[in-house]
Amino acid sequence: MADRDDEMMHALVHGISLVYSLLVEACRALPVPVNMPADPWVSVAEVRPAVKRLAALAADQPMGEDQEWQLRSGCIHLLAAIDLYALCETRYEETRADGVGANLATAEIDLKDLLIWLYANK
């Protein structure tokens, strides 16, 4: 069972990394671009506060309410996934891991939809 849990944790951290990459790409494409920590080995200690600040700044971007929400939702769900992942690291529970996956799926959808809009409206 521990091997399966380890595999799941590896898949989840990979998912977090992929969704964060989408967020970084979206930030570069925003009407007013935002620089996010983008080093391949960036730590959660750097990412978390940057994503929180970005969520707070979403309303300041000159774009529609739907796009503002997509950015904010992508940030919020990524933060929730990171928090649940940290809980899984201390004590793995399948429901927590499922929560990480669900939050990542929502963040991915929102950020991809935002990216489509951003590239279509450049």
Can you put this structure into words, describing what you see?
The protein has 122 residues and is mainly alpha-helical. It has a single domain (2-120), classed as Four Helix Bundle (Hemerythrin (Met), subunit A), CATH 1.20.120. It has 4 helices and no strands. It has helices at residues 2-29, 44-57, 65-90, 94-120. Helix 1 packs parallel to helix 4, helix 2 runs antiparallel to helix 3 and helix 3 (65-90) runs antiparallel to helix 4. The longest helix has 28 residues, at 2-29. It is elongated, with a radius of gyration of 15 Å. The N and C termini lie far apart (49 Å). The mean pLDDT is 96.
CATH architectural grouping: Up-down Bundle
Distance between the termini: 49 Å
State the secondary-structure class: mainly alpha
The top level CATH class name = Mainly Alpha
Total beta strands: 0
- The Cα radius of gyration reads 15 Å
Return the CATH topology: Four Helix Bundle (Hemerythrin (Met), subunit A)
The proportion of strand residues reads under 5%
Total count of helical runs of at least 4 residues: 4
Instruction: List the domain count as a whole number.
Output: 1
Q: Order of helices and strands, N to C?
A: HHHH
